[in-house]
């Protein structure tokens, strides 16, 4: 479980707190997305959860934050290894540089922990299968595309079986197929009880697999709730978050009287397709088409 209570953080050079009186609890196994405009505090929050901020950046904190029984302000990243895994946007920077194949790269962290060889092979093969990387097992990480490298970075984190995974825009360099594989892998993480904090810019794809969405606005939590509610909130644009294309299209249909009055605005492609299908049938029945 991750818990933040009345938590604020001000960087040494900051004129205002980058995080201001943050309060939330993410229970074990929940997949929570965090969205917000540039400068809203997302990277800072990711850094606090993964033990990087304020330990490596400096900064004053008030209130408290914890992962399980570990108080984050007192626990640097080095002590969170194995418990919290951070996957960043640029996969190239996450390669160890010390291993020659994808399979060895994924095994690297387990080798350092001295995990038994048979167990290591089992876990590495499983992760490669989950991320559909098995066919690339013998390729050099440096011969892979950015998207493949990102899947590798996720695999290297996943294999450590962390309690918490912090994913900072993990699909920003992936094509639609690669992004689909990552979000499918999140479903696997959920069933394994891993808590996931996902920082994403575009929510169209992840909306269907996250349990909750937090909106950060100028360091404060502006909204916190289920994707269906938060992602259709009319204030989303005021918080600097682009509304989903499905929601925007449905909102225009509402304005034209096409969208069924009691049907919620959609946040997934499936819900949008159902809604437009119903609107079309309604229009046909009314003799409009
Ligand atoms: N190391 C730092 N030292 C001083 N100020 C910082 C530092 N990192 C971030 N800030 C400031 O803290 C605030 C929050 O920044 P943060 O990077 O957390 O936002 P963000 O939502 O991740 O934005 P982006 O999407 O642009 O990365 C901003 O005003 C930023 O300028």
UniProtKB/TrEMBL annotation:
Molecular function (Gene Ontology), one example: ATPase-coupled transmembrane transporter activity
Pfam families, sorted: ABC_tran (PF00005)
GO CC list: ATP-binding cassette (ABC) transporter complex
Domain of life: Bacteria
Domain ABC transporter: 2-243
Keywords noted in UniProt: ATP-binding, Nucleotide-binding, Transport
SUPFAM superfamilies: P-loop containing nucleoside triphosphate hydrolases
Keyword Ribosomal protein set for record: no
InterPro entries: AAA+_ATPase, ABC_transporter-like_ATP-bd, ABC_transporter-like_CS, ABC_transpr_CbiO/EcfA_su, ECF_ABC_transporter_ATP-bd, P-loop_NTPase
UniProt keyword annotation of Transit peptide present: no
Protein family according to the UniProt entry: Belongs to the ABC transporter superfamily.
Identification of the protein by name: ABC transporter ATP-binding protein
Species: Streptomyces alanosinicus
